[in-house]
Amino acid sequence: MKSEIKQWFKSGDPWVTLTAGAVSVSLILVFGLLLLIAARGLGHFWPATLWEYDYKKLDDSVVRLVGEIHDTESVDAQRLRDAGIDIIGDAEVIRYLVKTGNRDVTGQDFRWILEPSIQAKRNPETLMTVERREWGNLYGYLNAVQENQQTVVVGKGVWESLQERLLRVTELFAEIRDLEKGEIGTINYGLERLRLRERALELENNTDPVARDSIKQERAEFNKEYAGLQQKLTDLYKAINRDQMMVTVSTGETIMVPLSKVVHAYRPNEMSLPDKLVFYIAKVWEFVSDEPREANTEGGIFPAIFGTVMMVIIMAIMVVPFGVVAAVYLREYAKQGPLTQLIRIAVNNLAGVPSIVYGVFGLGFFVYFLGGNLDQLFFPEALPTPTFGTPGLMWASLTLALLTVPVVIVATEEGLSRIPKSVREGSLALGATKAETLWRTVLPMASPAIMTGLILAIARAAGEVAPLMLVGVVKLAPSLPLDGNMPFLHLDRKFMHLGFHIYDVGFQSPNVEAARPLVYATALLLVVVIVALNLFAITIRNRLREKYRTLEN
User: How far apart are CA 40 and CA 520, in angstroms?
Assistant: First the structure.
């Protein structure tokens, strides 16, 4: 028996089994984590049932609470008695975390309530949820719709009238936003460029009247166009502030809510399953395509998605040439010896340096030294306001390129080492130079390995946060790095990032409970973005590998 067991171990079957088991456990853990994140994040967008509670307080008074159940947990009865709450029995007590909203009325968004203290609960169909641009959600009953402070609809038809007016307000809000960020933003950008041109003339002591008259004429045209747009904007704001609605909240108060501050108003208790599915899809799309609001705890995260993808693309464009050139020199041109081995060791060690160290280096070298000198040489008219002497998209991309270049070097070297020596010799024998052999034969055959290095670089760079906090990422960017103004791609601008957005919402939010679901949703989206970028690179790599498979064999 012992000999059979010994023979079994010598065959290697136990180690294969253990390895397969470890891989299986790892996959289960990864998929389990992704399912947890998806369930916690995507469930946030489902229209939750609204409940109305008659709740008994500690002083035996009964109050009315309205809200949606956010979380449920069991609490030991003795723990509640120790806290001064009179609970009969030794069993565990269920308590609910209710999102009561109405923060501008009650001062808090969430409240824990004990199940034994609930005197009655109802879910009336007329109870509505109002998503606002400020102060979070509002829960209550719709009483009337007003126009210019005059009540126009009460009772029957009030809900339909509200939805029609909300649609009108939404269209006006989109028009205002397009006007402010589009035409008015372009004019402001043009005026700033004229100011810099005028300042440049002053620094050069250029008194050319033609140049100054040209600037003055362009400024006058911009100002004239701006005045017309400003009047149009004033009319739009007047139109969007026309309508209001009267809402009765749980405290019994009737408050006035301007429709210009409302994003959505819906009655989840009367919605059918198809209605909820349509609403859910619309909310998910809004999360992906809209801008954040309420200190990043509401709205969408499109600027963070855009900033992450843009930074990774620029980083990839920068890191591949540097990594490939370094690997080609070390493998094809450098004399193999102790110095080359020392360089390889140094490259491998660079891959293990903490990312925050790269951030400090990027801030000191790229931003302060390189960016400051660029400002002195090419943008003196903008000083003391920095152009490139401040954290921005280009410095963030360069810092991450520096962080990931060891990965590309190592992967490219491995690919070059696998190419048979006979391929190089055959190319040289046919009369090709070493450079032609390298460019037309060796590098194409090594391209799958180069793509592997790029995939690893993307996977690491897309999730980095620490260095970006020093070299360009911000909580809320006023504008995207890419727009319709010359030079279109503004590498000097700060940007938003999904990883930093997760950190900011999860740990810097003033409303932790409201922000928690968005942390899960954003984390899931970051994983999806990284997987999408990697799948794109993997597809290219597989095609290249298939193309050069015969040569490798």
Answer: 6
Whole-angstrom CA distances from 1 to 5, 7, 15, 175, 341 are: 6, 10, 19, 83, 50
Does a structural domain hold residue 293?
no
Strands (E), 118-261: 118-122, 127-132, 137-147, 150-154, 243-248, 254-258
Q: How far apart are CA 127 and CA 137, in angstroms?
A: 13
The angle, 0 to 180 degrees and rounded to 10, between the axes of the packed helices 273-289 and 302-328 is 50
Q: Is residue 12 part of a domain?
A: no
pTM here is 0.87
- State pLDDT tens for residues 467-522: 999 998 988 887 888 888 888 888 889 999 998 988 888 888 777 777 888 889 99
Query: Could you tell me if 358 and 451 lie in one domain?
Result: yes
Mark whether 98 and 154 lie in a shared domain. no
Q: Closest by alpha carbon to 173, among 240, 257, 245?
A: 240
273 located within any domain: no
CB 69 within 8 A of CB 96: yes
> Over the stretch 297-317, which tens digit does the pLDDT of each residue have?
788 899 999 999 999 999 999
343 and 487: one domain?
yes
Task: Assess whether 112 and 155 both reside in one domain.
Answer: no
Q: Which domain holds residue 55?
A: 51-124
Count of structural domains within the chain: 3
Cβ contact 409:327 at 8 Å: yes
Please return the burial class of 132, using the count of CB atoms within 10 Å of its CB with bins 0-12, 13-18 and 19+.
buried
Whether a cis peptide bond, with omega within 30° of 0, leads into 487 is yes
Which tokens go with 20? 């397969």
